[in-house]
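Honest question from a wet-lab person: if I give you the sequences of every part of a complex, can you actually get the arrangement of the whole thing, not just the pieces? Trying it with mine:
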Amino acid sequence: MGQRPTGRNTQAPRATDSLEQLWQHRSPDRRASPMKLPQFDYEAPETVADAVGLLAEHQDEASVLAGGQSLMPLLAMRLARPAVLIDINHLAELSAVSATVDWVSVGAMTREYVAEESDAISEAVPLLAAALPLIGHEAIRSRGTIGGSLAHGDPAAELPAVARALDAEFVVRSLSGERVIPAAEWFEGYLTTSRRPDELLMAVRFPVAPPGTGVSFLEVARRHGDFAIVGLATSLTLSDGAIRAARLAFSGISDMPVRAAEAEGFLVGERPSAELFDEAARRATADIDPPADLHGSSEYRKKVAATLVRRGLQAAADDASERQ
Amino acid sequence: MDITLKVNGATCTGSPEARQTLADFLRDDLDLTGTHVGCEQGVCGACTVIVDGRVVRSCLMLAVQAAGSEVRTIEGLATDGGLDTLQQALWDSHSFQCGFCTPGFVMQATALLDAHPDADERQIREALSGNICRCTGYQSIIDGVLLAADRLRQA
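Yes, you can. This is the full assembly:
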């Protein structure tokens, strides 16, 4: 292609023109029409070193483009207007999933559908595996990445709640080297993380689930695949019928994912029962103050959160006994 | 930026601006206006195309990111002016009304049936859940895809 008519048809269209004739009057170069996205300088580094160098140079003037499933809408709505867009889709080394005895390390550019199909993740990090199919829709997971979602940090999204529940670790790199940030310190507020503007998220490490662990990821949304009104990541580790470890993290009730630490502590040492989970639900939601919007009032979200705790704990307990 | 990509089997070249979406590149530069642009923020699914075998929202991808890729659009389905099996089944089921959402639904369903020729109604509903239709209430679309899956199994 690349060849298009060059001369503009100077004769004005007439009402009696056939459709074919009218077609001749169309603008010869329709690219003259306004662009949806704002202007930016586009960089597509081939190496991590180059990417980190670009970040050091442009700092918060730059945005990193991973899967684009959050950033592209922000650009389209012109809520984001970076001077420089650093496209990291050529950094193949960021797409690897690797496992050790203790951790599964997921490269930041690992696409969500790839993670969904990963045996290492489904075997060793079942909570992440349970959350992945709930992210957006199939076409979103074709492009969306693990690192992109976690670096974007939407409090209603699934992966931040999973990372927070499991105490995942974030590996970031800058010109001055690498550092590892625990999930508790990664999320700082609405769409805000502790990543410095010169740092690139390289990988996220999820701890391997201990034997006897059952999980669930539940959410209430208006439409399947939409952002949750409230979501809950749950992990329970049982041995000899008693709860050895409990992990609960909400999405959608604050400006970042929220751990229910008090309820977790209450559950440890107890045996699963409906009464126990009722009390855990009360404790998990006693101090929360969810935001209100057109999808639900604060009070409604609080009720949904308590219901999700009861159901989530029961589902995780059932899952733990099934896996044994 | 100069790019080369395959669209519906044909090699195409173009020089989109870096900020041009794949959807706009297909429509404005390649004159493939079958791909529709609805919300332009990844919600409605009208711009769904298949890139390297995966369904994507072409409004959430830059044209320059499709360099070297193989893209399938709605224009690539019918051969010799005849509808393909899925299109014919959708036609027979009166699946659509105004037609705006149609290309997105058809590409999404094409990808589904390519990967899962034996898809059941639950899988079809799940796969189409990211596409919005304001005319039909969806049942006729589900019926059409089910009919296509049935015909593909018998073929």
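Two things worth pointing out. The longest helix of chain B spans residues 139-154. Strands of chain B lie at 3-7, 10-14, 48-51, 54-57, 70-72.
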